[in-house]
Amino acid sequence: DGVTYNVSGYFTQSDSGVAVVAADGTQYVQSYEAHEVVGDDTAAQTVEVTLREADATIQVTVLDAAGDPESSAWVSVIEANIENSETAWSNYSGGQTNSNGIATIPVQGDKTYTVYAYPADAYTTGGVLPPPHKTVTVASDDTESVTMRSVESDWTLGLAIQFADDAIAPEDAEYVYCYAYSEALGVDTYASLTSGSGTMHLVSDAV
Questions:
Q1: Which residues of 6-22 are buried (b: 16+ CB within 10 A; e: fewer)?
Q2: Phi, psi (deg, nearest 5) at residue 94
């Protein structure tokens, strides 16, 4: 009672960003926008979640570093102008690529989106980074196509950890991850460290 919660709804019927498909074929995408609710132990609280009608699509082709189609890659799109805001997830959609490396993502038209692609083996295959993200603007009742290709690393960075407390040995650390992001390339990667050390695959001339 008296505790404030941020409540949102999640609906899904497939491995895509589609939440609901109406009888007439209209697609609706997720609405992750949170609604503030204050708990009241004397009455039930009601939250209305409005799904967003998808009237456009973004067709994404995901390729590996060699240029071959990436099946089972996950593609995420998020409205670009709210990407870093508190309501960033309120206009999100996504889906998985088929055997031809293609994912068709339902979205709201007349908006600009940032598109991310994550191959099934993203971050686990040495020397290969996920594709750089891309920005796509799509009009209502239209489809925009974009191709995203993984990036092959051309150098590696050695990593090691050291604790301020000398009583803790680096090899005692578990689940240590290091993350790197290049704003210039729009590429991110991470590496896990074993026994306090590891290697991160990167791209030269990237900041």
A1: eeebeeeeeebbbbeee
A2: -170, 175
Q: What is the pLDDT of residues 73-131, one digit of tens each?
A: 999 988 887 645 555 455 778 889 999 999 999 999 999 999 999 998 776 666 788 99
Q: Residues with Cβ < 8 Å from 114, sequence gap 6 or more?
A: 77, 78, 80, 83, 133, 134, 135
Q: Give the residue among 120, 123, 16 at the shortest CA–CA distance from 72.
A: 120
What does residue 88 show for φ and ψ, rounded to 5 degrees? -55, -40
The model's pTM: 0.79
Cα first-last separation, the chain: 49
What's the Cα-to-Cα distance from 31 to each of 22, 38, 117, 124, 136, rounded to whole Å?
A: 16, 21, 21, 31, 20
**CB of 141 closer than 8 Å to CB of 56:** yes
